[in-house]
Amino acid sequence: xxxxxSIIIKPHITERSVALSYGDPRIRDERQIVRKYTFVVATxxxxxxxxxxxxxxxxxGKKADDCIKVASVRTINVSGKTxxxxxxxxxxxxxxxxxIVTLAKGQQLEDYGV
Length: 114
Prior knowledge:
Elements: H1 4-7, E1 8-11, H2 15-22, E2 36-41, H3 47-58, E3 70-78, E4 82-84, E5 90-92, E6 96-103
Antiparallel strand pairs: 1-2, 2-6, 3-6, 4-5
């Protein structure tokens, strides 16, 4: 198995991803809120590897009662943009992969970065 820290590169923090991490504002009960978090992941990683890596990283050193459980993982391959360097040369940013991780009801990541 690959190292979890080589699969999960970093959190992908945007306005939309922060809104997803708060859950649905119409739900008042904290135990019923479903939170989603986005991460930049290795392009070769699959959904099962991403799920196990998230659970390994965030459950490290916790008791069984406090462990998080990943409900689902969705992945998106993002194409790199083509950029002009000068009037002759054209460059391209690298392609990358994004994962949207949904946790079980009532769970949240403590040190996500927001």
